[in-house]
Amino acid sequence: MLRRILPLLLMLCITAAPFAAGRASAASPAPSHIDAVLLIDVSNSMNKSDKNKIANEAMKMFIDMLSAQGDKVGIVAYTDKVQREKALLQIGSAGDKQDLKDFIDGLDRGAYTDIAVGMEEAVKVLENGSDKTHEPMIVMLADGNNDLNEASGRTQSQSDQELDTAVNTAKQKGYPVYTIGLNADGKLNKEILAGLSDKTGGKTFVTDSADDLPQILSEIFAAHLKLKVVPVQSITANGSYQDVTVNVPNSSVLEANISIMSAKPVTAKLTDPSGKEVTIPSSNVLLSKSSTYSLIKLLSPAQGNWKLQVKGVPKDKIDINLVFNYDLELKLDALPSKTYKKGDTIDISSHLFSNGTQVTLSNLYQDMKAVLLATDIDTGKVQELPMDNSGAEFKGSFKIEESHNYELKVRAEESSFYRESDVLKINAKTGAVATSPASGTSGTEPALEQPASNTLYYIIGGIVLVLAAGVVLWLLRQKSNRGFVGQMVVEVLDGNTGEKTYPQYKKLSAFRGKFTLHQLLQLAPELKESEKLVFTPGNGDRLLLRSGEGLSVEKSGRTADTSRGLELKNGDRISVALATVDKTILLEYLI
Question: What pTM was computed for the model?
Answer without folding.
Answer: 0.59
